[in-house]
Amino acid sequence: MKRRTKMLVTGLALLLSQAAHASGADLVWWTMNWNEQKAKDYAAEFMKENPGINVRVEANVAGGLQSRILVALQSGSTPDLIDVQNGANVPLAETGKLEPLRDRLTAAGVKFDDILPASLDTATYNGQLYGLPFQAEAHALIYNKGAFKEAGLDPEKPPQTWAEFVDAAKKLTGKNSKGQQVYGYGVSGGGADQPGNALFRSLPFMWMNGGGILGPDNKEVIINSPASVEGVKLYVDLFTTYKVSPPSTLENDSNALRRLFQVGNVAMIPGATSDIERIRAAAPDIELGVGPLPHPEGKDPAVILGGWNFIIPKDAPNKDAAIKLAAFMSKPERQAVYTTTFPAAMSGLNDKRFADPIMDAHKEMLEYARPQPTIPQWGQIGQIYYNHLQEALLQSSTVQEAMDAAATEIKTLLSQ
Amino acid sequence: MTLRNISPGVWFILPTMLLLAALIVYPMLSTAELSVTDANGAFSGMRNFNVAISAPSTRLILFNTAYYVIGSVVFQLLLGILAGILLNQHFAGRSLVRSLMLIPWVVPGIVAAMTWAWMFHTDYGIINYMLMQVGIISEPIGWLTNPNTVMPALIAVNAWKMFPFVAVMVLAGLQSVPEELYEAVRVDGASFWHEIWHIMLPQLRPVLVSITLLLTIWALDGITIIYSITGGGPANRSMIFPIQIYVQAFEYFEFNRAAALSVLYFLFISVIIVLYMRVFAAQEKD
């Protein structure tokens, strides 16, 4: 009897240790839900090349991603490889829970000189590299050629300068021949995906004009400088003064704007190449045009560099295997498939997937793309700016007053 | 005292007490500790509290929280009592109406919130569509984006969501009122209104006192509806305290500041609850 108990216990212990062992040896890769199948395919290929490593792919959704990663990092029980928006890379690195990657990835064969330098900047904190960019994107102006024709505009000539842009937006606004109300441009001033959506659409207006939220060293606050205020004012005026943005502006995030574009309610929206794909799938009848973002007369366009990076937590149980997998995924031809927009490895752009001329404007904008300031407080600064941008859109204060108030709050934040 | 001398009752409640200690007392103490330390765990005194209180939006957020809680509770009670009294009457299809009325309460909060957000939408919401069809308004109203309508809209959603709960409780309370009381006042020639005022409401008093406390607590910590409909916007016009705590912790990663806000909010709620118990629970004994 005693012996039997002993055997049972031993057996159970063995079983448990096996189970624990199996889960500890699995390399866990947090991908995004839209990339789950691709990640699984690559994981299978990787496992074939590296017998002995078992990769388990787990899919995340975008909402709340950053906090989910943060909780995992803080708890110490982490996945091994994580896909993350490049804007979240530095705030996550600030926790001190990410593995510095440059030396180990270089040893594993990653060619850093092929990766877009601005993308690498999004992963750099205190001189160390804490992420491996695999996707890079920038907005361009997506417009409805049919609406351009109805408004008497040349559908092959999207507006280049701010003056042409305002003029086109005004002409596009009104009832079309079917009696449907059309608005020239979709300002993003609310909705779920904020402050990100509003920031991506309005900060370029400041940058192009020589302004911004922070100065070049990320210490000086220039959000209420004349150049910045003029940029924000144009963005706000599109809704408040020119009335070329729909009444629902304060509840529209990028998804809402794309839906309004798809039903012909809005004629111009800024967006990435992934937006083109989604619009084509949902509204194949709309004839799409794409142009660079309009810029002030005699100045260059500017745009925020978006994209995704791989990160590896310091506490990851399978760091070595994760480095291998990241190096495996860094190959330009794999990035070209895995990305939903453009690959961060520039040679990957030669892939035939990106040969469609409709992507030319987006490629051009990539050259003008700048990373968001890589300081840990950036998330809060974005929220402060967004709150005051909404004040201006609500017309409860002038743009100058709103940006003055934002500047005061940001300065307080930076001094804490 | 040996183990033997401890009353068996203590042993019976011990597991529960330990569980409560682990799940309630420990997090509370941990929050209190976080609130007086910085991100590296070093003691920082009242600094987190100062930063939290001096934020320019604090006053607006406090006002919104009070507005939301009072507005929600008043309308939840009003609608709930009315519905409860109505459903206590005899009419055909009563049990069907009773079950249908429960729908808002049964629907998951997030589903209800998203549905209302769409219904309130300025451009393609059904509320503006219907109002414009009937000709009540000529321009779409930005229910969730106009600073004057956003809080009333959110309170309406919260009242709609919770009034069935009040109605069910009221209904249960009314069914325990002895029929003799009604008969007695009817003999005296009382109207239906008199029945409500002099029999139903006084008999419901103990039920209403506890429901009000529950509703207040739920409104104070209810973030689902506002967070998923407006996220506190536009420009903090619908931001309430619990959402601000969540945003500080999980969007800004300022756990210490969030902890300081939590401690403040805990005190704020405690004061309200104590005052409430003083006023109503005390009268109960009279």
From TrEMBL, chain A:
One of its GO terms (biological process) is maltodextrin transmembrane transport. Gene3D superfamilies: Periplasmic binding protein-like II. SUPFAM superfamilies: Periplasmic binding protein-like II (SSF53850). GO terms for molecular function: maltose binding. InterPro entries: SBP. Residues 1-22 form the signal peptide. It comes from the Bacteria. One of its GO terms (cellular component) is ATP-binding cassette (ABC) transporter complex, substrate-binding subunit-containing. Keywords: Periplasm, Signal, Sugar transport, Transport. PANTHER family: MALTOSE-BINDING PERIPLASMIC PROTEIN, MALTOSE_MALTODEXTRIN-BINDING PERIPLASMIC PROTEIN. Belongs to the bacterial solute-binding protein 1 family. This is Multiple sugar transport system substrate-binding protein. It comes from Xaviernesmea oryzae.
UniProtKB/TrEMBL annotation, chain B:
It is a multi-pass membrane protein. The chain crosses the membrane at residues 9-29, 66-87, 99-120, 153-174, 207-229, 258-277. Keywords: Cell membrane, Membrane, Sugar transport, Transmembrane, Transmembrane helix, Transport. Belongs to the binding-protein-dependent transport system permease family. The keyword Transmembrane helix applies. PROSITE patterns: ABC_TM1. Residues 62-276 form the ABC transmembrane type-1 domain. SUPFAM superfamilies: MetI-like. It is found in: Cell membrane. Its main location: membrane. One of its GO terms (biological process) is transmembrane transport. This is Multiple sugar transport system permease protein. One of its GO terms (cellular component) is plasma membrane.
